Amino acid sequence: MTASVKTGAISIRGVGKRYSEDAPWAMRGFDLEAAPGELVAIVGASGCGKSTVLRMVSGFEGPTEGEISLDGAPIKAPGPDRGFVFQDYGLFPWLTVAENVEFGPKQAGLGRAARRERVQEYLELVGLTRVRASYPHQLSGGMQQRVAIARVLANKPTVMLMDEPFGALDALTREQMQADLADIRRRVGTTVLFVTHSIEEAVQLADRVVIMTGGMSHGVPGHIRRIVDIELGEERDPTSTAFTDLERAISEEVHAKL
Question: In its keyword annotation, does this UniProt entry include ATP-binding (predicted)?
Answer without folding.
Answer: yes
